[in-house]
């Protein structure tokens, strides 16, 4: 057990580290690691730092902390229960500083990942713990994860941004990453993912943040994904002048391949996507993803596999992609929202109330629920229904979505990668 105390933690700027790696031509790779035991977490961070790749560390928090039930987290620690992440608030800053001491610093920044629509206690715990980087968003950490009213989440995240910005100090620029590029993880056409990532970044900077990252989660088709990441870059450059920002790609967030070969190939495709499109950071997944929480060794193997894939991939010249119309669609959504109010938070609330933003298959009461995405015959995401959003549906080839059809669509990537790995897909899996 780590000894509690005021262990020194070197200050680090997350955005600066990623910028230096990008300037050196290296993709930063990052695990989704989180353990409730401080010794195990410290060992995981040490292994991440020692991996043969350019890495940043992660503290993924537990479910009790995400919903603000710190009493339950503390009770679990008291009886020695194993949680599904690190209870940052319950452990307290002294224990966390001991976890980070001698590991975190300019050469190895650490980010907190959680998923909370009520992030106040988490953000308040960062500074005393020696941490300054996290992720989230008023929409993306609300709609897919629970039933917290969107209005409450927007207000919670406004205060969270302002509190995080107060951690600014010499050599330390607080950093916040949007989760808007993921949302439900599957069956959301890329234009909406890009738009929400941009809108959440604008929300962050309105409330004091000067260093942000914009996420995009790998979807079902490499070429469609590449166009989406370039669209995200274009809009970020246009709308975030003077703000330090980079693009982070999430390895596929849906039903994951069950074969080691299929899982590894999906990770490699994510790394290739990041390098081809100039994204600066990649969140990895492991071969154990379909079955359980990965071990430290499996996380390190994933980091190193992603790095190898990245180093054998060359960046591709930026071209005006318009095969799928993603930039135009995302721009239309962003502009429609920003016209509703000067403040991005009020604009987001009005947009969801009017259905101008509408996340497909999301059952949250504040989501209109009139939009639907589908996979076309080539496995590309399309709009079947767009409700009141200012984008057009592609009705060609759409069929009524049945329960069986939904399950088939949700397992499309898993089946495609596993069949290729088992040699039962004559087409294989390529870009």
Radius of gyration, Cα only, in angstroms? 20 Å
* Overall pLDDT metric: 93
Question: Which word captures the global form?
Answer: globular
- Terminal-residue CA separation: 47 Å
SSE series: HEHEHHHHEHEHEHEHEHEHHHEEHH
Helix/strand/pairing class, anyone?
A: alpha/beta
Reported for the largest beta sheet, the result is: 6 strands, parallel
Portion in strands: 5-15%
> Percent range for helical residues?
40-55%
Number of strands: 10
Work out the helix count.
16
Low-confidence stretches: none
Major sheet: arrangement of strands: 1-8-7-6-5-4
3D structure, described in words:
Keywords: Cobalamin, Cobalt, Isomerase. This is Methylaspartate mutase epsilon subunit. It holds the Pfam family Met_asp_mut_E. By secondary structure, the chain is an alpha/beta fold. Helices cover 43% and strands 11% of the residues. The protein is built from 16 helices and ten strands. It has helices spanning 14-23, 38-50, 63-66, 70-78, 88-91, 93-100, 120-129, 150-165, 190-206, 222-239, 260-277, 296-311, 326-338, 344-354, 403-410, 412-422; strands at 28-30, 57-60, 110-113, 133-136, 175-178, 211-217, 244-250, 281-283, 371-375, 381-386. The strands form three sheets. The chain has a six-stranded parallel β-sheet, sandwiched between helices. Strands 2-3 form a two-stranded parallel sheet. The chain has a two-stranded antiparallel ribbon with strand order 9-10. A hairpin with a 5-residue loop joins strand 9 and strand 10. Helix 2 runs parallel beside helix 6 (93-100), helix 9 (190-206) runs parallel beside helix 10 and helix 10 (222-239) packs parallel to helix 11. The longest helix has 18 residues, at 222-239. It is globular, with a radius of gyration of 20 Å. It starts with 13 loop residues before the first helix and ends in a 9-residue tail after the last helix. The relative contact order is 0.12.
């Amino acid at each position: 057990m780590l000894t509690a105390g005021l262990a020194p933690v070197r200050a680090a700027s997350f955005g600066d580290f990623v910028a230096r790696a990008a300037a050196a031509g290296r993709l930063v790779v990052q695990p989704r690691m989180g353990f409730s035991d401080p010794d195990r977490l410290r060992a995981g961070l040490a292994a991440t730092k020692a991996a043969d790749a350019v890495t940043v560390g992660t503290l993924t928090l537990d479910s009790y902390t995400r919903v603000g039930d710190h009493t339950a987290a503390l009770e679990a620690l008291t009886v020695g229960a194993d949680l599904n992440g690190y209870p940052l608030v319950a452990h307290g800053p002294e224990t966390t500083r001991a976890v980070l001491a001698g590991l975190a610093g300019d050469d190895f920044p650490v980010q907190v990942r959680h998923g909370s629509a009520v992030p106040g206690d988490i953000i308040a715990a960062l500074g005393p713990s020696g941490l300054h980087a996290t992720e989230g968003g008023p929409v993306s950490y609300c709609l897919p994860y629970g039933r917290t009213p969107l209005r409450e989440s927007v207000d919670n995240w406004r205060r969270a941004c302002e509190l995080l910005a107060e951690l600014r100090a010499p050599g330390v620029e607080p950093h916040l990453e949007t989760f808007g590029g993921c949302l439900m993880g599957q069956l959301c056409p890329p234009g909406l993912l890009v738009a929400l990532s941009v809108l959440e970044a604008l929300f962050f900077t309105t409330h004091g943040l000067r260093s942000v990252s914009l996420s995009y989660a790998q979807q079902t088709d490499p070429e469609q994904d590449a166009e989406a990441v370039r669209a995200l870059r274009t809009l970020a450059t246009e709308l975030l002048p003077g703000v330090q920002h980079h693009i982070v790609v999430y390895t596929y967030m849906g039903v994951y391949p069950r074969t080691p070969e299929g899982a590894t190939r999906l990770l490699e495709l994510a790394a290739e996507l990041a390098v081809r499109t100039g994204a600066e950071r990649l969140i990895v997944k492991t071969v154990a993803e379909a079955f359980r929480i990965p071990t430290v060794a499996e996380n390190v193997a994933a980091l190193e596999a992603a790095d190898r894939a990245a180093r054998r991939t060359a960046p591709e010249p930026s071209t005006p992609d318009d095969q799928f119309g993603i930039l135009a669609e995302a721009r239309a959504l962003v502009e429609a929202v920003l016209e509703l109010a000067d403040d991005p938070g009020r604009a987001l609330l009005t947009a969801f109330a009017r259905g101008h933003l509408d996340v497909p298959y999301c059952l949250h009461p504040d989501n209109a629920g009139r939009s639907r995405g589908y996979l076309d015959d080539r496995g590309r995401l399309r709009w079947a229904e767009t409700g009141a959003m200012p984008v057009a549906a592609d009705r060609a080839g759409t069929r009524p979505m049945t329960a069986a059809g939904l399950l088939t669509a949700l397992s499309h990537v898993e089946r495609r990668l596993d069949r290729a790995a088992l040699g039962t897909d004559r087409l294989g899996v390529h870009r």
